[in-house]
C-alpha cells in the first residue's frame, strides 16, 4: 500500500516536471538554441526533425525515459494489483503511470519520426518490464528470453543508428 502511494505521488511529480519541460521548450521556442560542437553530440546524424540543441536533446531523452519508465512501472503495478478488486491502489497507480507515459510518448512524437519512436519506446519498455519483473516480482526468465532481449537491443541500436530523419 505504501509502495502504491509512493509511486502515485512520484507519478504526479513526474507529470508536473514534464509539464514544466514542455512549457520551457514552448517558451524558448525555435529561436533560442544552445549550439553544440559536432564531436560532443552522440547524435551526429541529427535525430530531431529540427536542429538539435542541448535543451531539445535533454527534453527528448527525458520524454523517452518518462514514457518507457512510466509504462514499465504501470505494467508492474497492474501485475501487483491483478487478482484483487478492480478498485485497488495498485491498479489506480498503474493506470496513472500509463497516462503519464502516454502523454510523454505523444510529446515525443511531436518531434521524432513514428517509425523510430514507436519501436524504440516499445522495445525499451519490454526490456525494462522484463527487468522489473525479475527484480521486483521475482519472476524467472529463461535464457531464450534473455537472448530475445539482446536481439531487441541490437534492433533498437540498428534503428537509431540508421538515422532518425525521414
UniProtKB/TrEMBL annotation:
It holds the Pfam family Multi_Drug_Res. The chain crosses the membrane at residues 6-23, 57-78, 90-109, 116-138, 144-164. It comes from the Bacteria. Its main location: membrane. The keyword DNA repair does not apply. It is found in: Cell membrane. One of its GO terms (molecular function) is transmembrane transporter activity. The keyword Transmembrane helix applies. One of its GO terms (cellular component) is plasma membrane. Coiled coil: none annotated. InterPro entries: EmrE-like, Small_drug/metabolite_transptr, Small_multidrug_res. Keywords: Cell membrane, Membrane, Transmembrane, Transmembrane helix. It is a multi-pass membrane protein. Belongs to the drug/metabolite transporter (DMT) superfamily. Small multidrug resistance (SMR) (TC 2.A.7.1) family. This is Membrane transporter. It comes from Rubidibacter lacunae KORDI 51-2. The lineage of its organism: Bacteria, Bacillati, Cyanobacteriota, Cyanophyceae, Oscillatoriophycideae.
